[in-house]
Fold this protein.
Amino acid sequence: MNKRTRFILCFFLCFYCTSIFAQTEDDNVIITNMEDVFTFRLNDNNEPFIEEKSSAAYECTRISEKVVLAKFYDNSSEIESVRVKGLKGVKPEYSMYQEEGLFYNDTKICTLNLPFTLKNRNAEVSFKKIFHDPHYFSGAYLSEPQFVKSKTVKLVVPYWMDIDIYEKNFGTNVKKEVITDEKEKTHTYIYHIENQKAEKQEPYSPGFSYIYPHLIIVSKTATTGKSRQSIFDNLGSLYQWNHGATLQDNSDSTIIRNKLQEIVKDYSTPESKIKAIYAWVQDNIRYIANEYGIMGFKPDDAQNVLQKKYGDCKGMANLLKSLLVTAGFDARLVWIATNQIDFDFSVPLPTSNHMICALKWNNKLYFLDPTIKYMPLGQYSQSIQGRKAMIEDGDNYLIENTPTISPAQNTDSLSCEYTVTSGALSGKAVNSFYGESKQLTLLQIHATEKDKQANVIRQFLEKGKVQDKATDILLSGTESQSDCLSISYQVERKSAIQAFQNELYIDPDAIKDYAEITIDTTKRENDYLFPFKDRTVRQFTIQIPQGYKVTGLPSGQTFKNSNLLFTVSYTQKDNKIIYRKEITLFDPWIKKSHFKEWNDQISAIRKVYMEQITLKKI
């Protein structure tokens, strides 16, 4: 999932803090005071539940504005009451939650539209919410979409309830207190935050769980009388919770076997069958995120996914596993948290936001993510690289790390053989894409209507330069399991040459990779995260035209910072000039403390791109 949705599923969702902040000019409607109280109680069946009481005071400080507040709930929770003071005619609206890519889910939403029509207008909003099952209660949040002057979060925990609390992204504006009440037999954990900046969604940012201050709350056990209920007291209980949902699978083996025979009928070796099965699911099942059934933990039956031709990650992983197992391979379901959330199974909570498939084959463990189209066997997207994964193993489980792949997996390589013809660089070019570079390129192509794809590819190759032309374009390797997407074409680059008197000035590089990726340090609040690490290679060979000699050849240069390595070289060999550039983004996460270093290197790269090769007529 790419968008933040508070309280959806049962994983904590993200918040940020650095030291103490002041209200900014962008903060119009603010929270002057807020309190969230979470109390563990017992129902009539002696089962634990959590009562949440929330109250907040809002103030419009400058201009009129409509504020939309949202509270999420589901089949395991309910909103018992909502009250608004200070604004007339405001009533809560209840509906099923809908978001692009989200279907048939049990997530519901209560919304309030608060019309602040005048400066200094105030409103008070209170909610009461019940979590009927502590399995689905996993966090308390200290930041808000609005600037917060003061907020208190309280956890009232009776002696019979055993929990763990993990404090994340706390700054110096958070204070903590613990009060023990012997009479009521409770521990109350109090967290108070002041002058907390508003949450901000920025492009290319880490997930909110890396940024904003929040509490991770693990309900471990509840002991009432002689009864002791285990909730999430260790990873074993977490696995039993996860695995229990998969045991409800009712996949039809006959339907799966018939589809398998159709998929592998033209393949004879184990490897070719594995690749064919993997590619079939990637190519024929549309991925749609789904929050459904036990808060989104139960995989859809394999034959249902086959019939519908779409599924969420759980349904697609279950279908892939079923096909592989039917074909005689050792395939298993895997729970994993993508790099969007800060989770590594050090805490026994069902916060894994993704399900994939593991394959034990040929003395090696492979991780297969069928939701990632065009990714071949043995290659991995950045989102699951280097992550801890929980793998089903009957009544037990395995915890393994997914592989971390070098930037070379995602190479984007362009090679050209140029001659100088009629005032242009002309010749044959081959652009090769691997890994996630291949995947991204094919996604962009196939997101375009078929009758417009050829034109889009041509414009991509011409880089928006109207003087340049790309013709005779041929694509190969467009299959999901191909290692490389290759685009070969004829190119004419009139924009690359300027003639003055008896000299030619040649710009060898039309692409100028990374030249425009500077970070606005005056506005950017969060770290900058590229989608994936990669390696960019450009090698252009220019035939020196007869009757000319080289009088200006720039020097090679190398730059390196905490994230990027840039090298460029110019070489004359016989009657050819070879320009080679290689850029390696070895760490896609740019820390805010490294923004100046990054921008300085981009400025240096831009200066390199301004240099030209000079040829003079003899």
User: Anything to note?
Assistant: The chain has three domains: 29-230, 239-401, 408-617. The chain has eight helices and 35 strands.
